[in-house]
Structure formats: C-alpha cells, structure tokens
C-alpha cells in the first residue's frame, strides 16, 4: 500500500483521536501520515496517492470549523488519480436527523474535483433517523459516534482499515 495522508479537523479531539487510530491500523507512521487540516498545504494534498479526510458534524450539517475555513484547499485540488476515503464523527442520539452529514460535504467536494471515493460503510450497525452522508444505501465513509458508542470505535476502525488496505493499492 502506498503511503496515505490522513487529514482531519477536530474541535473536541474526537476526530483527531480517530485519525490516529486509523493511522495505527494502517501500519503506523511508515504507512500513514496524520495532518491537521490547519497545517495542510496544497503540496501536502498532492504528495499522497491515497487520502483520508475526517471531519465532525456541527449544528445543522456543518463541517468542523477548520475544514470550513480551509475548504479552498479542496476547491483548488485536482483529485484525478487519487483514492479518497472519508470518516466522520457525530452523535446519533442527540443529533439523529443529521448524523455525520458533514461527510457528504467532503464527498461532494472530492467528487467535483475528480476524486475516487472508497470505503463506503453499511448503515445497519447505527441508530439514527437521517443522514445526508448516505449514497446508494451506504454511508460515504466511516461514521464514528465517540459520544454514545465509543466501545465500538476500535472494531469499526479496524474493519474499515482492512477494507481500505484492499482498495488503496
């Protein structure tokens, strides 16, 4: 597997925590580099063939603040030839009507700029009412609920990373 760039924005630390779990499951620092989006440059996005973007969902389906501020990086990046996976942190109990919606915002930006999205996840193991992050009856990436189901996160990350290892050549 080629080295992967994991870019995240995190306000409460949950998304950063999950990014580091993903890095560990992908093989550590030799296989994946974790980068806070506020520290990212256009060159950082270009140097990886495989990318993972992680964001939390705030209020009514908004991306985490740092992603909103730096989304011009996504707008200005041609993702042709890159495989991109997404993960989102959210709260399916207190926000069941927009659970991990921000993943869909990232999904749309990547698709607009010719990126190939990989790593879709089935909805069966989650309890929520609605999510914009569902395309073709699957989440566009890995949903994580550290608030209510933190005990499920390690296994969800491990299973997802096994899939990514196959999809990220």
Characteristics of this structure?
169 residues; alpha/beta; seven-stranded mixed sheet; three-stranded antiparallel sheet; globular
3D architecture notes:
The protein is α/β, with parallel strands linked by helices and 169 residues long. The protein has helices at 14-26, 42-46, 65-75, 102-112, 153-167; strands at 4-8, 32-36, 50-58, 62-63, 83-89, 116-118, 121-122, 134-135, 138-139, 142-144. Strands 1, 2, 3, 4, 5, 6 and 10 form a seven-stranded mixed beta sheet that branches. Strand 5, helix 4 (102-112) and strand 6 form a beta-alpha-beta unit.
Q: What sort of overall outline do the alpha carbons produce when their principal axes are compared?
A: globular
Please identify the structural class as seen in this structure. alpha/beta
Oligomeric organization of the protein chains? single chain
Q: Mean of residue pLDDT?
A: 90
* Total count of helical runs of at least 4 residues: 5
What fraction of the residues are assigned to beta strands by DSSP? 15-25%
Main beta-sheet annotation: 7 strands, mixed
Q: What is the N-to-C succession of helices and strands?
A: EHEHEEHEHEEEEEH
> Which residue ranges are poorly predicted, with pLDDT under 50 across at least 5 consecutive positions?
none
Radius of gyration: 14 Å
């Amino acid at each position: 597997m080629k080295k992967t760039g994991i870019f995240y924005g995190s306000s409460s630390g949950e998304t950063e925590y999950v990014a580091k779990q993903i890095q560990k499951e992908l093989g550590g620092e030799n296989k994946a580099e974790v980068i806070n989006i506020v520290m990212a440059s256009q060159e950082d996005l270009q140097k990886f063939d495989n990318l993972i973007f992680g964001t939390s969902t705030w209020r009514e389906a908004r991306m985490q603040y740092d992603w909103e501020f730096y989304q011009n990086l996504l707008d200005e990046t041609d993702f042709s030839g890159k495989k991109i996976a997404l993960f989102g942190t959210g709260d399916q109990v207190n926000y069941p009507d927009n659970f991990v919606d921000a993943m869909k915002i990232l999904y749309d930006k990547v698709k607009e700029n010719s990126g190939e999205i990989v790593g879709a996840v089935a909805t069966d193991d989650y309890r929520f009412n609605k999510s914009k992050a569902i395309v073709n009856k699957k989440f566009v990436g890995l949903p994580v609920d550290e608030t209510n189901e933190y005990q499920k996160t390690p296994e969800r990350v491990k299973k997802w990373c096994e899939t990514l290892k196959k999809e990220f050549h």
